[in-house]
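subagent[fold] <- orchestrator: predict structure for attached chain, return tokens only, no commentary.
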Amino acid sequence: MVDKTEITHPIEIKDNSIERVAFDLMEKIAADEQYFSKNDALKENPRDYYLKLYNQCHKTVSRPSIDIDNLLQK
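subagent[fold] -> orchestrator:
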């Protein structure tokens, strides 16, 4: 398996995009997890922690039943 990532165009994260909402959600969850507990996963491998958390958040906000505009207003 080859670990290779290519980006073929500029990345834009707009205020109301799924990616932006997922990123904001990830930041809030990470902040709460750091505040309320001693998160061993974050200490051991922060890159893995954040990538997994972002992936989970992206899957969540990508669901058709999620109203992103409503989430942004909160």
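orchestrator: received. Logging for downstream: The chain has a mean pLDDT of 78. Helices lie at 18-36, 40-44, 46-61, 68-73.
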